[in-house]
Amino acid sequence: MNTSQWHDALRELTGVTGVLGALIVSADDGLVVAETAMDELATADVAALAAAVVSRAGRCTDAMRAGVPSSLHLAAEQGALLAMAGPPPLWLVAVARHDAELGRLRLLLRDFAGALR
Amino acid sequence: MTDVSLPPASAALQGLAFLELGERLRQRGQFAAAASVALAGLGHYPDVADAHDLLARIRTDQGHDAGAIAAWHAALECDPGHVGARKGLAFIAFRARDFTTAERQLELAAMQAPHDASVLAALDRVRSVQPVSAAEDEPRFTDPSGGLLLYDLQGMRLAGGIGESDDAALADAVAAEAAGLSREAARAARLLGLGRIRHLVLETADARVAVMPVAHDAALLLRRGAAIPIGRLLALAGRAAQAADDWLGRMR
After folding, report:
1. Rounded to whole angstroms, how far apart are CA atoms B215 and B79?
2. CA distance linking residue A98 with residue A19, whole number of Å
3. Which of residues B74 and B167 earns the better pLDDT score?
4. Contacts of B191 in chain A (CB under 8 A)
């Protein structure tokens, strides 16, 4: 998948009802690699915070001897953050409202994360 | 479901040819001879889990369920991750219509072998016949092998364990890391304007894990095999969180 296809995928993700933005994040440094988002979403913050949660999740599953996380779904009262591992160190991340189509979003994230090469 | 498994391919290389011989005799229906071979082998190799597994399968064929259960427990003492022993114990429980135990054993097997089609198929079958009841997966905070860990946000374990063993040091280490994860997730949700966290679900190749807040200063972690549907995982975690809330209230 080239960068143009990355942006196509991100646009498809943000086309899902309730999705505020989608981005490709480098989990090593918490920086945005590519993004498509509504203006209200601070994508740099999303990248940094998602990378921090992913890092903590990895430490937790490592302590559990459960392997490396391949996906993460943080659900909160007003919305959700979903992240799916791509080729290291990339993660595909989406932020959605609480009423978003999370099932469909999750499936798309998984498909696109697997194609991020 | 089946209790049949193939003899280990490396048996001959390890000088454990009696495993193959015993298995062949078992498959031919010569159970007494197979048991003699297995017992003689165990006399020389008492720490080989596959030898106990072989004896257990022979005992099952002979209709000696108690002997089979004892042998499979012996196999698990030698190798806590022995999938065959878990499947065997699940088979005996299933036959006795103890579906909760059968499912639990298969979930533990699935943790060890998340891509084993026979384990996943057996899990599906157990779940398809298991009546839905309030007792299903009752939260067990005092059972370290229950896959349910309750901890405070300072990283101290309050109760439970992570499922694969009753290793308290391991559970303490997980509680410390899980508390860090809970705090980081709550911080991310707050700074992104998402409000209070409801739950966090992690997936790995081997496991699905739900993390859920309990009261204002604690959280629980529920670990199950990768085969469990996420909705069911969250339903179980929700029930456990409610029970944990009550338990903490009584403790305080």
Report:
1. 38
2. 9
3. B74
4. 45, 49
Write out chain A residues lying below 8 Å of B202, CB-based.
Answer: 57, 60-61, 69, 71-72
Q: Record the tokens describing residue A4, joined without a space.
A: 């143009």
Tens of pLDDT along B151-161?
999 999 998 88
Task: Characterise B137 by phi-psi region: left (phi > 0), alpha (psi -120 to 50), beta (else).
Answer: left
Tell whether B166 is covered by a domain. Answer: yes
Q: Is the pLDDT of residue B10 over 80?
A: no
Does residue B142 belong to any structural domain of this protein? no
Looking at the domain assignment, is residue B134 inside a domain? Answer: no
Same domain assignment for residues B98 and B156: no
Tell me which residue range forms the domain holding B211.
148-251
Residues B85 and B154 occupy one common structural domain: no
Quick one: pLDDT band at residue B252, thresholds 50, 70, 90? confident
Total number of domains in chain B: 2
CB A12, CB B151: distance < 8 Å: no
Residue B160 lies in a domain: yes
pLDDT digits (tens, 9 = 90+) for B57-110: 999 998 888 899 999 999 999 998 899 999 999 988 888 777 778 888 888 888
CA separation for the pair B24, B41 (Å, rounded)? 14
Is A69–B180 a contact, with Cβ atoms under 8 angstroms apart?
A: no
CATH code at B32? 1.25.40.10
Residues from chain B contacting residue A107 (CB–CB below 8 Å): none
Contacts of B235 (CB under 8 A, 6+ apart): none
What CATH number corresponds to the domain at position B164? 3.30.450.30
Instruction: Give me the residues paired with residue B223 across strands.
Output: B209
Q: Express each pLDDT in A15-64 by its tens digit.
A: 999 999 999 999 999 999 999 988 889 999 999 999 999 999 999 999 99
Q: Residue B163 has what pLDDT?
A: 65
Q: Are B165 and B109 within one domain?
A: no
In words, the CATH class of domain A3-115 is: alpha beta
